[in-house]
Amino acid sequence: MVEVKKYYKGSVDFISGEGVILNEFIGEIATRQINIIDGDYYASSSLLDKNDKVGFLLYDGKKSDLDLSDAEEISNEEFETFWQTSTSSLQGKKKIKYLSGDAAEPLKKSTVIAHIVNNKGKWGKGFVLSLSNKYPLAKEYYLNSFKGNNIP
Predict the structure, then answer these.
(1) Which residue, 24, 42, 51, 55, is the most exposed by fewest CB within 10 angstroms?
(2) Alpha helices in the chain (DSSP H)
C-alpha cells in the first residue's frame, strides 16, 4: 500500500508567540515541517531539531492525534514554495569548506575538525603531522601502544 502525502497549513502558538506551521505527512507520520514566527522560517525533517523560539521543529506523533479542523489542506506546490524559501538561506551555511593551515589549530571557536583514522598503528603524513608538531609525545604514545601486535 502506497502512503499518500498530505500537506497542511495553520496558525499555532509557539513558545515565543503566534506563528504559522506547515506540515507534510506521509500517512500518519510528519516528514517535514516549516515553522514561521516573526517573519523567520525554521524548517526541519529531523525529530532532533529544536529552536528557542519554536520548540521542537518537527511534530513527533500521529497525524490522527492532531486537531486539524482549523488547518487548511494545501498543495504540494505551495508547501514546496515555502520549503524552498525556508531552506534557501541555509544553502551557503551547509557547504563543506576546504581550508589549509595548521590542522591542530581551529581557525575560530566554532570550527569542527573532522578526521577519519584507521587505528592500524602507523603514523601517516597528513593530519598527524600537525599533531606531531604541536604534541610530540602523541606520536610516541600512539606507536608504543601498538608494539608487540597489541591493539589499544
Answers:
(1) 55
(2) 76-88, 127-134, 136-144
pTM of this structure = 0.59
What count of other Cβ atoms lies within 10 Å of the Cβ of residue 34?
A: 21
DSSP state of 62: B
Asked whether the beta carbons of 69 and 121 are under 8 A apart, the reply is: no
| Residue 85 backbone dihedrals phi, psi, to 5 degrees | -60, -45
Cβ 7 vs Cβ 23: under 8 Å: yes
**Residues pairing with 30 in the sheet:** 25
Mean pLDDT for 120-141 is: 72
Q: How far, in Å, CA of 34 to CA of 82, rounded?
A: 8
Q: Cell triple for residue 35?
A: 515553522
- Compute the distance between CA of residue 67 and CA of residue 71 in angstroms, rounded to an integer: 8
SS3 state at 63 = helix
Which secondary-structure segment (H or E) carries 42? strand 40-44
CA count, 13 A, side-chain hemisphere, 109 = 0
**Which position has the higher pLDDT, 76 or 16?**
76
Decide if 32 contacts 57 (C-beta within 8 A).
Answer: no
The three grid cell numbers given for residue 145, joined into one nine-digit string: 601502544
Are 92 and 44 contacting, i.e. CB atoms less than 8 angstroms apart? no
